[in-house]
From TrEMBL, chain A:
This is Nickel transport system ATP-binding protein. It comes from Sinobaca qinghaiensis. PROSITE patterns: ABC_TRANSPORTER_1, ABC_TRANSPORTER_2. GO terms for molecular function: ATP binding; ATP hydrolysis activity. Coiled coil: none annotated. GO terms for cellular component: plasma membrane. Belongs to the ABC transporter superfamily. The keyword Ion transport does not apply. CDD domains: ABC_NikE_OppD_transporters (cd03257). Residues 8-258 form the ABC transporter domain. It holds the Pfam family ABC_tran.
UniProtKB/TrEMBL annotation, chain B:
One of its GO terms (cellular component) is plasma membrane. PANTHER family: ABC TRANSPORTER, ATP-BINDING PROTEIN, TRANSPORT ATP-BINDING PROTEIN. This is Nickel transport system ATP-binding protein. Residues 4-254 form the ABC transporter domain. SMART domains: AAA (SM00382). It comes from Sinobaca qinghaiensis.
Length: 275, 270
């Protein structure tokens, strides 16, 4: 397959949940190809199955209540065959995960530094001091002010935007080749949103990371993604290059989605000032 | 007389009397804020998180007494008015919050939730009340059959519609919308914005639309105010003026608007 091998290749993914009335399908025949160093946007309304897909990719769904079928390949290595212990070593080191709500992603009872070092040390053989140094450098890279002070702070002492950047720093410090970002900016205000998107882009250019960017906001997708997959009712209905999708959407639903945003009716002169 | 007038409001947090003999640090969250909202007008209040938008919203709703300054609703001071006037004010001034799940009681049905303001103000017979609630539900794009459902059976967007139905039940003069659409997905957000627009035209409602999203504010507002660190840094009576403002904070906010098309993207990493 050579260098064109996909960073993440998902084939025929089916996710269903067990209910008293039988199996209820949530995701059907999902096919995704994430190319190395590229950003794939996954767009869709709430309830279309975006987050379930991402949980299935990370194998975080409870096998007792959910059934996951299909193939998930990370650089050609099949992930669905791995047992829980092996999967744990993949998560965090090979696949990074950025969650929607940074406030819920951290434990409020431990300091940032504590949680940062724990993540690093459970995947590497670094000493505590080396881990602290690595944490500080990766926070510096994320343009976080005074990282050594941040290490001693508790999650609730930081703002949402800052905490989200700390989370990106944690998920990036082990240089995973694939990052899954589930609505990374939805909980943030507009200025923080742009900053987080910039950091994600920097990761991609500096480390060659491939990113699966999940968002309901087509603004986020149009700002960052190279390719876009549109999801509806658990299926992917259209996949295209981002320019192709915005200029020539094939599906009626995609057109509706594109028109759904309140437009800023600017004349050209104003537009130039804004952009 | 303006519908709402905020005069020189200053507010601080963290100065609560403590029984411990330590001096607590005061944080000034609002400094000399003044604004007016006329009947039938939508005022967009924009700012990043921590700018004091929600505090101002609370002050305007009569939930947080400011340290200095006055809030006049229909010419009467919210914090000195008589109990009877206050009761009338409560009817004319309504609110819709961001988190719809926490603003409804999960143990009540939609009928009881929307019926609560009616119980308090209108003495309707059981069948009349039922008909009003059904009308309100239809008005916000839900069905009369949804009346018997409880909050857990609705999606976030549907529940936000229920909050809106509750707020318009008494035909108020003004609604404070505090980040009311921010937690919804793009499609639902636009639907709710259109709904709010229609209701505004129908009842000549006034809104105070608090948000960090200029795109949404631009869609619904007539005028816009930008806040930073508890101060109003820009007032645009014509909403288009926001794009030509020279104020650094406004420029920063305008520059963070995400593009409508990938050709306009500002991040060009490739």
């Amino acid at each position: 397959m050579g260098h064109q091998q996909n960073a993440l290749h998902v084939k025929d993914l089916n996710v269903a949940v067990k209910t008293p009335k039988g199996m209820l399908p949530l995701v059907q025949n999902l096919h995704l190809e994430l190319k190395p160093g590229k950003i794939l946007g996954l767009a869709g309304e709430s309830g279309s199955g975006k987050t379930v897909t991402c949980m299935a990719l990370l194998q975080l769904l409870n096998p007792k209540t959910m059934s996951v079928k299909g193939s998930i390949q990370l650089h050609g290595r099949e992930l669905t065959d791995l047992n829980q212990k092996k999967m744990r070593s993949v998560l965090g080191r090979d696949i990074g995960f950025i969650m929607q709500n940074p406030m819920n992603a951290f434990t409020p009872v431990y300091t940032i530094g504590n949680q940062f070092v724990e993540t690093i040390r459970s995947h590497t053989v670094l000493t505590k001091k080396q881990a602290v140094d690595l944490a500080i450098t990766s926070m510096e890279k994320m343009n976080l002010p005074e990282p050594s002070k941040l290490m001693k702070k508790y999650p609730f002492q930081l703002s949402g935007g800052m905490l989200q950047r700390v989370m990106i720093a944690i998920s990036m410090c082990l240089r995973p080749s694939v990052v899954i970002a589930d609505e990374p900016t939805t909980a943030l205000d507009v200025t923080n949103q742009l900053q987080v998107l910039r950091e994600l882009d920097r990761l991609r250019t500096e480390c060659g990371t491939s990113i699966l960017l999940i968002s309901h906001d087509l603004g986020v997708i149009s700002e960052l993604a190279d390719d876009v997959a549109v999801m509806r009712n658990g299926r992917i209905i259209e996949t295209a290059d981002v320019f192709q999708l915005f200029d020539h959407p094939k599906q009626e639903y995609t057109k509706q989605l594109l028109q759904a945003r309140p437009a800023l009716l600017l004349n050209d002169q104003l537009k130039r000032r804004v952009i | 007389m303006s519908l709402l007038e905020v005069k020189d409001v200053t507010h601080t947090y963290g100065s609560a009397r403590s029984f411990l003999p330590i001096r607590r640090k005061e944080t000034q969250v609002l400094s000399n804020v003044s604004l007016t909202v006329e009947q039938g007008m939508c005022m967009g209040l924009i700012g990043t998180s921590g700018a004091g938008k929600s505090t101002l919203g609370k002050v305007i709703l009569g939930l947080e007494k400011p340290k200095k300054g006055q809030v006049l609703f229909q010419g009467e001071d919210l914090y000195t008015m008589t109990a009877a006037a206050r009761r009338k004010m409560r009817r004319d001034l309504q609110v819709v919050f961001q988190d719809s799940y926490s603003s409804v009681n999960p143990r009540l049905t939609a009928e009881q939730i929307i019926g609560e303001p009616l119980d308090n103000y209108e003495k309707l017979s059981v069948s009349e009340q039922k008909r009003t609630v059904a009308q309100l539900l239809e008005m916000v794009g839900l069905h009369a059959e949804d009346m018997k459902k409880r909050p857990g059976q609705f999606s976030g967007g549907q529940l936000q519609r229920i909050s809106i139905a509750r707020s318009i039940a008494l035909k108020p003069k003004m609604i404070v919308l505090d980040e009311s659409v921010s937690s919804l997905d793009m499609v639902t957000q636009t639907n709710i914005l259109h709904l709010l627009q229609e209701l505004k035209n129908e009842y000549s409602l006034s809104y105070l639309f608090i948000t960090h999203d200029i795109r949404a504010a631009y869609f619904i507002s007539d005028a816009m105010i930008v806040m930073e660190n508890g101060r109003i840094v820009e007032t645009c009576y014509d909403k288009n003026d926001i794009f030509t403002s020279e104020q650094p904070k406004v420029k920063e906010l305008v520059a963070s608007i995400l593009p409508e098309h990938p050709k306009d993207r500002t991040i060009t990493g490739r």
